[in-house]
Amino acid sequence: MLIRCGYDIRFETQNKTAIMALLSLHPSRHLDLRTPQRLLADPDVPLYHFEDGFGNVATRLTIPAGGVTLSCDFVIEDSGLVDVPAPDGPHTPVEELPDAVMPFLLGSRYCETDRLMAFAWGNFAHYTTAKARVDAIVDFVHNHIEFGYHHARSDMTAWHAFQEQRGVCRDFAHLAVTLCRCMNIPARYCTGYLGDIGVPPVDAPMDFSAWFDVYIDGNWYTRDARHNQPRIGRILMARGRDATDVALTTAFGPTNLVRFDVHTDEVQSAGEKSY
């Protein structure tokens, strides 16, 4: 399966402003590219790419006074298979987990494990396997939160989403991640492209998506509390503890986002346009 992905994003600012962006594919998907992935800036300002502490490709640039447009368009090959299900094995005790996954058990900026610990143990402890606990958590979050783009706000945490029962895909992911961590299941936040492939199209502008991974029986497995079903064509961009680590852009000064267009569509050839 071939998928054309990309974006066209414009920022405006009165003064030159440094920003950091995580708008590139995760290195784990680079071998799947069928056309080059080039992040373009207009005007043509210098771009510096580096690998952050979570293995994501980050980009640094300085927006000139007036603004900048960032764009990208590429074709990637995908297996066309749905998310791989986790095995229903025993829950791995914390003392047996590898060191590398321990940060994904801790609370973080948007995932307040201390506030949700009692709720999690009171509602999910009776499930005997990690997969059963994750299934129950995903079902709960999917049914507990009302999705709506008008609910989006930058300071919404897992606790807020739990209390207010509304949010966007990142809030579904944050709450599910938090509850998994409360139950001693390592969980990490993910962001990337997820088009309406294999499902009825949604009557809303395309956006980037958020989901999460859980560590079960020695491997990471993808889960999605927003959609609560295995999906086709999930294209990873970045992952970390929460949205702080994988913010699409972080501006170090006042900026205005004036255009935000994303496309993710199945195509038959690398030369076929999707928009």
Automatic annotation (TrEMBL):
Q: Which residues form the Transglutaminase-like domain?
A: 161-227
Q: Check the record and name the InterPro entries matching this protein.
A: Papain-like_cys_pep_sf, Transglutaminase-like
Q: Domain of life of the organism in this record?
A: Bacteria
Q: What is this protein called?
A: Transglutaminase family protein
Its organism's taxonomic lineage begins at: Bacteria, Pseudomonadati, Pseudomonadota, Alphaproteobacteria, Sphingomonadales
**What would be one Pfam family of this protein?**
Transglut_core
